[in-house]
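Forgive a beginner's question, but might I ask you for the amino acids of a protein and the tokens describing how it folds?
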Amino acid sequence: MTLTMPDPILDLDVCSLAAATRRGDLTASEVTRTYLTRLHALNPHLRAVITVNPDAQRSADTLDALSEPRRGPLHGVPVLIKDNIDVAGLPTTAGSRLLLEHVPAQDAPLVARLRAAGAVILGKANMTEWANFMTVGMSNGYSSAGGQTLNPWGDTLDTGGSSSGSGVAVAARLCAAAIGTETSGSIVSPAHQNGVIGLKPTLGLVPRTGIVPISHSQDTAGPITRSARDAALILSVIAGPDPHDEASRRRPVPDLRVRSGVLGGAHLGIIRDEPHATPAEQAALDHLCARLDSLNVTRLDVTFPTRQELNASGWNLEVLEYEFRGDLNAYLAGVTHGPRSLQEVIDANDRDPERLLRYGQTLLHAAQGTRGDASETNYRRARTRDLDLTRTRGFDQLFARGLDILIFPGIHGCGLAAKAGYPSLALPVTPPGTDTPGGALLVAPAGQDGRLLSLASELNRELGGVRFPAV
């Protein structure tokens, strides 16, 4: 990979960049050209982007023709979209070669909102194939459509998944921000592994229409950015109800403004007894706690209330397996070029195993083996158990003690937050002498995305902000 000297434009976060383009200090055209140049130089090695938007530069030129009062909050900001989200005129592959010719005619609502706010869609980000619900043991960041994504901090490091390309692209400054999706860790994992901010919003805050699904009980899209303020700005643009997504119709949009001075009065719960935390993850948590103590922030060491029951029951995928079949079939029914059902995906993969089945498709078979029926007794029992262990007798018991957020080492706890439908955020934490990314996971109650972002913003500033690899 060729080392490059970054253009000063690439140093600007989303908030600063949008302010500069709205004022006219920079043009959308020169910003887009700068990012496309860097993308074309580094992506052949990193493979973070599957498709570059051929209309990106033209879109930027059109934005430059707008008068200042008509310029939106993301005017001229280059954004990459995970390749399981529909962008009109570009393939939506979910990482599978089977969908290379699937070109939606309509933007997903969140993409339409980004465009309306002035964002420039640079292209589609690579991802772990079928959002990492294809098989067990698939390499994070691998897809038959895009190849193996690499971490810009080092080729041998994990990229995280499944929004792998989105996390890599933000860290390598191939875009100003990216959109990922998460069912269980797929936004916060790549953000954590690449040392940037990743926000999984409260379930239903961002509509899922136009997104290749896994589970309507857990799926959500969210931003991967360089700062919590950037994440808040993007979330404020893409959040809101959509008539075709019931969860979004039921979820009111909270106040998403990032407020200053909130850390001093906050009560933070620290999960210090995570049994699977690595020494590096514990060191990052210790560093974070030491910084909190120096700021006289109120913190309380806590244990997740249902940990023993969760450990005893194992990490089940029953809800995802049941929902994946029906939800995916509903999406694929609208595909004109490619498989029209999960069974057709499985059959097509079997016909071309050399190119399509490097890691197998055990989860696809497991999902197809269910009835895909939400009235199925086993499914309803599994979903009730998930909510009881993670939400009712889990997070809610801790938040009832007056805690604003919970902090886990690494991204432990992301699966709990995903099952509960609660917002979580990957926060970079770099202890002295550490050369590779690390961090902690912040979790807040449902609808408290703004509070979570405000606390994360102050913590990120106190910890020195986001670092970037030397590429």
About this structure: The chain has a mean pLDDT of 96. The radius of gyration is 21 Å. The chain has 17 helices and 13 strands. The first helix runs from residue 14 to 23.
